[in-house]
Specification:
Blueprint lengths: L7 H46 L7 E3 L12 E3 L16 E4 L8 H6 L1 E4 L2 E4 L3 E4 L7 E3 L4 E9 L3 E7 L4 E11 L6 E2 L4 E5 L12 E7 L2 E3 L1 H4 L13
Antiparallel strand pairs: 1-2, 3-6, 4-5, 6-13, 7-12, 8-9, 8-11, 9-10, 10-12, 10-13, 13-14
């Protein structure tokens, strides 16, 4: 049988090692708690961010996106609270190149709203906007809605029709190309296509012809810009 004898020196060394191990273990326990706490906080903030970025499920709410040139608000607006916007970015300084034919307008304004084509005279039933008659630009949806018609005409170019709440429609023609198809859902400020020129009204240059239709009436778009779609809501709804 072996007898293990420790000198005083060896016993002290053993105690020192034990103390060091105890200190290391205590520090590890302390750091483990800190690491665990950090992981819990990290998971909490990650979940909070996911909930923040979760899209709104309300079908009556439309996110108007990041189109700062045409966005009438800085956040989310209900479709029924939307207001008509210009079909061209405000930042481009759009110019009204041909006005709507208004029976109550002056003789000069009425004359400016008459278009001669193929030896016939036509009154303008919309408003025509341009930048400088030469530069093309993106044509924007004036309100949220559903694209109900997309067609190309040899005389006036591409045309897009969008139906909104309460049966109101907006029409955009003189487009060189389109970005949407029939049945598409668009939000206010979405790009419908690109402006162009046409044979029907060549003096207006590169422009968009914009109409607002309610029932069988074509309204003056200039009167609609900035007003709410809610004004068309039937009284019994």
């Amino acid at each position: 049988m072996n007898n293990w004898n420790f000198t005083g020196h060896n016993k002290n060394e053993v105690m020192t090692v034990k103390n060091k191990l105890n200190n290391v273990f205590k520090k590890f326990q302390s750091y483990s708690f800190i690491i665990f706490l950090a992981l819990v906080l990290g998971a909490f903030f990650a979940l909070a961010q996911l909930n923040k970025d979760k899209p709104v499920d309300d079908p009556n709410v439309t996110d108007v996106g990041t189109n700062t040139d045409n966005d009438p608000t800085d956040g989310i607006v209900k479709v029924e609270d939307e207001k008509f916007i210009m079909p061209i970015a405000d930042a481009l300084n759009p110019e009204l190149v041909r006005n709507y034919y208004d029976l109550n307008a002056s003789l000069e304004e009425k004359a400016a709203a008459i278009i001669e084509y193929d030896n016939y005279f036509f009154i303008n039933q919309g408003a025509d906007y341009t930048v400088d008659k030469e530069a093309d630009f993106e044509v924007l949806a004036s309100l949220s809605g559903t694209v109900t018609k997309v067609q190309q005409d040899m005389t006036v170019g591409w045309m897009v029709e969008v139906e909104h709440l309460y049966g109101v429609k907006t029409v955009y023609n003189s487009l060189a190309d389109v970005n949407v198809a029939e049945g598409d859902t668009v939000a206010i400020g979405d790009v419908l296509g690109t402006s162009g020129s046409n044979d029907f009204d060549p003096t207006s240059g590169v422009h968009v012809h914009f109409e607002v239709v309610s029932g069988n009436s074509k309204l003056n778009p200039e009167d609609m810009i900035g007003t709410g779609i809610a004004q068309f809501k039937p009284e019994n709804e």
